[in-house]
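Quick one before lunch.
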Amino acid sequence: MILSVMTAGAQGTAVASTVPHIDFGNTAWMLVATALVMLMTIPGLALFYGGLVRRKNVLNILMQCLIATSVISIEWVVCGYSMTFGSSKGILAPFIGGFDWAFLKGIKINDVSPYFISQPTARIPHLLYVMYQCMFAVITPALIIGAFAERIKFKGYLLFIILWSLFVYNPVAHWMWSSDGWLLKMGAVDFAGGIVVHVNAGIAALITAVMLGKRKDYRNHAIPPHNIPFVVIGTALLWFGWFGFNAGSALAADGLSANAFLVTHLAAATAAFTWVMLDWIIGKKPTVVGICTGAVAGLATITPAAGFVDVAGTLFISVASSLVCFFMVAIVKPRLGYDDSLDAFGVHGIGGLLGSLATGLLATPVIQAAYSGAFYGNHKLFWTQLFAVFVTVVYSGVITFVLFKIVEKTVGVRANTKQEAMGLDETMHSENAYTDID
Amino acid sequence: MILSVMTAGAQGTAVASTVPHIDFGNTAWMLVATALVMLMTIPGLALFYGGLVRRKNVLNILMQCLIATSVISIEWVVCGYSMTFGSSKGILAPFIGGFDWAFLKGIKINDVSPYFISQPTARIPHLLYVMYQCMFAVITPALIIGAFAERIKFKGYLLFIILWSLFVYNPVAHWMWSSDGWLLKMGAVDFAGGIVVHVNAGIAALITAVMLGKRKDYRNHAIPPHNIPFVVIGTALLWFGWFGFNAGSALAADGLSANAFLVTHLAAATAAFTWVMLDWIIGKKPTVVGICTGAVAGLATITPAAGFVDVAGTLFISVASSLVCFFMVAIVKPRLGYDDSLDAFGVHGIGGLLGSLATGLLATPVIQAAYSGAFYGNHKLFWTQLFAVFVTVVYSGVITFVLFKIVEKTVGVRANTKQEAMGLDETMHSENAYTDID
Amino acid sequence: MILSVMTAGAQGTAVASTVPHIDFGNTAWMLVATALVMLMTIPGLALFYGGLVRRKNVLNILMQCLIATSVISIEWVVCGYSMTFGSSKGILAPFIGGFDWAFLKGIKINDVSPYFISQPTARIPHLLYVMYQCMFAVITPALIIGAFAERIKFKGYLLFIILWSLFVYNPVAHWMWSSDGWLLKMGAVDFAGGIVVHVNAGIAALITAVMLGKRKDYRNHAIPPHNIPFVVIGTALLWFGWFGFNAGSALAADGLSANAFLVTHLAAATAAFTWVMLDWIIGKKPTVVGICTGAVAGLATITPAAGFVDVAGTLFISVASSLVCFFMVAIVKPRLGYDDSLDAFGVHGIGGLLGSLATGLLATPVIQAAYSGAFYGNHKLFWTQLFAVFVTVVYSGVITFVLFKIVEKTVGVRANTKQEAMGLDETMHSENAYTDID
Amino acid sequence: MKKIEAIIRRSKFEEVKDALHAADIEWFSYWDITGAGKEKEGLMVRGQVFESSYIQRRMLSIVVRDQNVVRTVNAIIAAARTGEMGDGKIFVSSVEESYRIRTGEKGPESLYLNDV
Amino acid sequence: MKKIEAIIRRSKFEEVKDALHAADIEWFSYWDITGAGKEKEGLMVRGQVFESSYIQRRMLSIVVRDQNVVRTVNAIIAAARTGEMGDGKIFVSSVEESYRIRTGEKGPESLYLNDV
Amino acid sequence: MKKIEAIIRRSKFEEVKDALHAADIEWFSYWDITGAGKEKEGLMVRGQVFESSYIQRRMLSIVVRDQNVVRTVNAIIAAARTGEMGDGKIFVSSVEESYRIRTGEKGPESLYLNDV
Ligand SMILES: Nc1ncnc2c1ncn2[C@@H]1O[C@H](COP(=O)(O)OP(=O)(O)O)[C@@H](O)[C@H]1O
Ligand SMILES: Nc1ncnc2c1ncn2[C@@H]1O[C@H](COP(=O)(O)OP(=O)(O)O)[C@@H](O)[C@H]1O
Ligand SMILES: Nc1ncnc2c1ncn2[C@@H]1O[C@H](COP(=O)(O)OP(=O)(O)O)[C@@H](O)[C@H]1O
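Model of the adenosine-5'-diphosphate complex:
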C-alpha cells in the first residue's frame, strides 16, 4: 500500500473538484472491502484451519480466530491504529506512531482519510480507513495459529497475540505503511501486505512452531484433516475475501483496483492448478487439500505485488509460488522436522517472501507509472525489497522469540500431555464440536 | 433508522446538484447492504440456530428460516411494504400505511427513494429501498424461531409468522420508520432496528416460548449444540451481514455509514470478549458458544444506537450488553423456568431493549447533530425511548398472544410427543440432515 | 445481458459528462458483483451439489468445482475473453472472436469497458468487465457437474470442460453477448445468461448424462443427500451470489440494477414457495431439499428476464418455473430413466429455457423502453427468443456430443465399477471428506 | 450375565430409553447403525417418494444379570414395536466376565441392576 | 444361532453386500469403525504420502442359523479379499436367543434366512 | 479366544491405546458410542454448567487368545481409570471362530498376539 498524507480535507462536492473529499463510490467499495477482509478471518481462516485439524481440536482453532478478531479489534481502537498510523515526535517517528489517535480521539466522522493511492481527491472517510486497517491487524496474528495448532495453551495464546500485535505488528506496519515509515521512505513497497502480513506472520509461525516443539504424535507428516469440506469452504471464503484485501488496497474503485482484482484471481487460479499438477505427478493423485493449499499460496504470493504487476508477471509469480511452497511443505519441512502444523510458515511466510521479492523484479510501469522492477530497468527496487524483507524477518523473528519466552515463563504456552491427548476442545473449552445425542 | 422526508440531513451537498437523484456510489453500497441483510437470515441465522439444536431438529430450523425468507418476501411485495411505508388517509395515517403501493404498483424503476438520512440529494432507487426493507421484514420473524425451536408444528409456525408480519411487524415498523409514524414524530429513534426488529421479535419470542410450554426433555439448561462449527459460521455471517444492517441503515456510503460500521464492529468485539470473560470467571472455561452469543448480543444491542454513538458510548453499551444478557440467559431464565430454547428473548429482546434505552442516554451530537441523549444534556430523548420501547413491548406482547392463540385453536402449534421424540426433521419433512449410507 | 457498443442504452445521462469514463460508484458495485458470481461456484454450487451426493463422492464434486474455477479462469485470460468478446475479421465475425485480446494484450488498466447497458458514460474498467465475464465462463461448465456426478473419471472431466468452454461456451456467448454476435443482432435478448449459461449448460448436462449412462445403483430416484445443511448453505450462497449475477448484469448501480435485484429475489422466493407447496400436496411433506431446489429453479428462470420484467411478470415466471421443473424432475425424469444425478438439466436447463421464452412474452417497456414482449404487443421478440433457444439447444447438443465422444475415446470418461463402488474420493483423490480418528 | 443387543428404529429410541429406565436399567450404551437389505423405508427426495435398501437404525447394547434378561427384552419389545415391517431385532448372548473400571470389581456386582 | 462380525475395507463394502445377498442373507447391520495398530495405510496430505496407524474400516454384524455360518463366512472372505495387508477379520460367536420385535417371535424363526 | 469389549472415556483413549500396544496387542477396533443413564457429566452451555444423562464414550473391541485376557483387561483398567464415576466397563465373552480375510487362516493363528 502506497500512501501519502498530503492535505487533509473536509468532505463534500464531488467530481470536478480538486479538494480531497469523501467519494460515495469509493466509500461504497471500501465498506464492502473492509467487511470482506473480516470474513477472511471468521469464518474463512477459521474453517480453513479448523477443517485441517482433528475433531478434538477444531473448536480451539475456531475460538482462537474468534478471540483474535475480538481482542485485536479492541486493541486497534484503543492504541493500535494510533501506534501504526499516528505520528510521533522526533527520532521515533520513522519507527512507531504515538498515542494521539488513541481511542480514535480527534477523528471526526466526516474527516477524509489521510491515505490514498491512485485517487488523491476522491477519498474515503478516515474512520473507514481505520476499520479497513483493523481487519489487517486482526488477520495477521490469526495466520500464526496454523503453526501451533493442537498443542497451545489458550491463556498463553491470548497473551501472546496481544503482545505480538503491540510489539511486532504495529511497528512493522508503521515502517511500511505509515507516511512516516522508514522502509516506505527508503522506497520499499508492499501493496496489500506481503511483508507486513505474510512474511511477518510467517516468520513468527516458524519461530513459535520450533519453540513450542512437536505435537506428541507428530511423525513428520500432516495428520489427515477431520473435515475437508470445511477446508474448501474456508478456502473459497479466503479467495472471496482476498478481493477485498488486494483490490481494496487501492483504496478506491478504479482501474488500479480492477487490475488488483484481476491479478489476484489469476494468481489463485494458476497456483491452484500448478499445485494440483505437482500433486498428480509427485503424489500420484490430485487432492482437494492440495488445490486449496495452492490457491492460498497463490493469493499470499500475489498480495504484495497486486498493485504493480500485469498478467505476465502474475503468471510467473503464481507458478513459482506453488513450486516453491510445495517444495517447502512436502520436502523441506519433513526433512527438518519442525512441526508447523498447518503450514503457516510454509505457505504464508514463504509465499509472502517470494511475492515481495518478485515485486522488485516484475513491477511494471504500465500499472503504476512510479514503480518499475528490475525487469523493467530499475534494479534498485529489488534490492530495497530484499532489504525490507530481511529487516522484517530479523525483527519479527527476534521479538517473537522474546515475547514467546516471556509468555512461556509467565502463564505458560504448551498444553500438557493430558490436554493434548484428550483434545483441547474438551479440556480448554468444556465443549465438543459435534454431539450426536438426541 | 431515522428518516426524515422533509428535513435535510446536515452534511454533504452532492454532485453539483440539489435535486434528489440516484447516486451510483450510494446505490452500489445499498445493493450490497441489501444482499448482506439477506445473508443474515439464510444461511447466517439458520446456521446459528441450526447448530444449536439437536441433530434430529436441524432441518426444521433451516426450513423455518428458508420459508420465512420466501413467504415474507412475497408478503412484503404484495402488501407489506405498502402497509409499512405507504400512506393512509386521516386518523389511521400515524398507525398503518395503506395499500397504494400494493404489488409495488406505481413505483418506477428510476424513482428515487423517498427516504434518506444524511444524504438528501444523493439517494438510491426507490425499488432498492423496498428490497432493503424487505430483508428486515424477513429477519424479524425469523429471530423468533429461537424461542420455539424443537417443538413447534410447521403448519402452525407458517401461519403464525404470516399473521405476525401483517399485524405486528408492519404496524410497529410504520410507527417508527415511516415518515407518518407516530413514534417517529414523537421523537423516538431507532437507527437500524433495535425496537422494530429486536425488541419486537424478542417479546414475541418470550410470549410464544411461554405459551408453547417447555420441550418434553428440557431441564432448565440448554441442550448441547449438535454442531458448534455451524454456530461459528452462523455467527460470523451474522457479524458480516450486520455491516449491511447497521452501516446500510445510513442509506448512503458516507461518514455516517463509516461510523456505523465502526461501532458495529467494536460492539461485537467488545461484547464477545466480555462474555468470554464471564464464562471464564463464572463457568471456569471460555467457551465457543459463549463468545458467539456475546458477539450476537453486542450486535443486537448496538443496532438502535449505531447512527448516534461514538467509541466511548459503544464500549459502554457493549460491555453492558454482555453483562445483562449473560445474567438473563445464565441466571434469570433457568430460575423462571420458561424454555426460550435458543435465547431469542434473552439475547435479542434484552439486547435491543438495552440498546434502545442506551441510545437515549449516549446519543452524541458529534455523530448526528440533531440527536443528543441524556448524557449530552437532552433528557427528553431517554424518556421518549423508554416510552417507545414500552409501547412496543405492550403491543407486540398482546398481539402476539392473540395471534398465537388463534393459530393454536385453528391449525395447532405444538408438535405431538411422538414428533418431538423422533425429531421434527423426520416427522415433518421426511428427511434426515446427515445420511451415512453409501 | 444486452449490450451495445455504439448504440446508446436509453436512460440516465451521467453527471455532467458525456464522455465514457470510469465511474467509481458503478465500479464499486461491479467489483462486488464479480466477487459474488465467483462465490456462486465456490463454495455455493460446490456445497449445493456436494451436499446432495453420497459421503464417498463429496470431495470429487468439490474438486470439480475448484478445478473448473482454476482452469477456466486461466483459459479465459489466455484466449477465452478474446474469443468471446474480441472481434474477428470477415465472415467469422458474427460467430466467434479473434485472438487480439489473448492474454488481455492491449487492455490498459484505465480503459473503460466497451460494454454497457443503461449507463453509456458512467462505465467500469475494461479489466473489470473481463473479470466479471470470467466468472460466468467458470460457472457455466460447473453447472454441468450435476449431470455426471458420482461416476465420471476426473481426467476425462477436466479435458471435457476445457474443450467445452473453447468450443461451446465461447462461441455461444459470442453470438448472444458480443456486439458482433449474430443472435444479438437478430434481436434475441438474454439479460444475465438464461440462454448462454443455463440452456447451454442444461443441454450439455442432458447429453452427457445420457452418454455416460446411469450410476450402477441408480434406481430412477434420487439417492438421499449426505448432508442437507450443506445443500442449504449452498442454496443461500447461490441466492446471495445471484444478486451479483443478475443485478450485476446491468453493469451499473442504478434503477435497472435495483429492478433486477428485486425480480431476482422475488422469483427465488416465489418459486421456493411454489415448490414447497407441490411437495406438500404431492409428496405429503414440505422438504428442505424441495425448497432449495425451488429457489434455484426460480433463480435460473428469472435470469434471462431480470432486466426486462416487472413484478407481475416475475410472479408469473416463478410460479411456472417450479411447476415445470417439478414436473420434469419428479415425473418425467424417472419415467425416461436417464440419470441426471443432481438435475442440472431438469432445473437449470429447463429453467433457463422457460425464462428465455417467457422474456419474449413478458418483457415490458416500463423496464427497458426498447424491449417489449408479445404481451406488450411485440410478437417478434417471442419468435426470436424461440429461435435463439433452438439454435443453442442444437449447437450445444451436437458439439457436446462430439466433444464427449472424443474425450471418451482418448482419456476415458466413465469411472470403473470399483471406483464407483468405493467412491471417487478415495479412488481418485486419496482422501476422505470426514475423518474420525483422533 | 447376558448381553442384549437390540436394533431399533431411531424414532422409537426415546420410548425405549424410558422403558428401560422404568425396568431399572441404569445405564446402557448405543450407537447408530445402518441396516442393509431388501427395499423397505419410504424417503422423499425432490418430489419422489421411494424405497431405499438402507435403513437407519440404532443399536442398543445392555449387559444384565441372567435373571433380568426377560424383563429387559420385554420392555424393549413393548416400547419399540410399531407392528410395521422394520421394527428390528433383539439378540441375546452370554457374557463371561464383567469389570467396573473405576473399582476393578468383577462379576455381576459390577453391574448396577440389582438382583430382583 | 451365530453372530458373524466381519471387519472389512470400506471400499469392499458394495461387493460384500452383493455377495451376502447372493448368499441369501436378507438383512444385516453395519457401522463404521477405526482400526488402531501398526502403520499400514497410505494417505496423502499436502504432497506427502504417509502411513497412518489408524485405518478406517467397516464392521458388519450378521446373525445366522448355525448351518449357514460357513457359507456366509466364505461369501465374505471371497468378496472382501484383496490379498494385501489390512483385509480384515471375521469373528464368530454364539447367540443364545433372538427376537423379532415386530411380532415378538423367538428363536431362529425370527431370522429370515431359511434352513437350507 | 475371547472378545474384550471395553467402554472407556474418550479422553483416556490415547493412554489406553498405548497401554494395549505395550501389552502386545497389535490391532484393535473402536467406535464412538453414547451412554444413556443417570445424570453424570458436567457440560457447559451459555454460562450454565449442568449434568447430562448422556455421556460420550468410546467402545473398544479386541479379540485375544484365552491366555491373554487377564493382562489385556488389566492393561485397560490401569490406563482407563480415573477413580471418578463414569470410568466405564469391560465385558468379556467367548469367540468361537476367527478368520483372517487376507489368507483365510482360521483359529487363533489368525490373531496377532502370540502365545506367551
Ligand atoms: N440377521 C440379522 N443380522 C444382523 N442384523 C439384522 C438381522 N436381521 C435384521 N437385522 C437388522 O434389523 C433391522 C430391522 O429389522 P427387521 O428384520 O427389518 O424387522 P422386521 O422383521 O419387523 O421387518 C435391519 O435393518 C437390520 O439392521
Ligand atoms: N484382534 C483383533 N481384535 C479386534 N479387531 C481386530 C483384531 N485384529 C484386527 N482387527 C481389526 O481388523 C482390521 C484389519 O485387519 P488386519 O488384521 O489388519 O488384516 P491382515 O491380517 O490381513 O493385515 C484392523 O484394523 C482392526 O480394526
Ligand atoms: N450394563 C451395561 N450395559 C451396557 N453399557 C453399560 C452398562 N453399564 C455401563 N455401561 C456403559 O458404560 C458407561 C460408563 O460406565 P459407568 O457404569 O458409568 O462407570 P462407573 O460404574 O464407574 O460409574 C456408561 O455410560 C454406559 O455407556
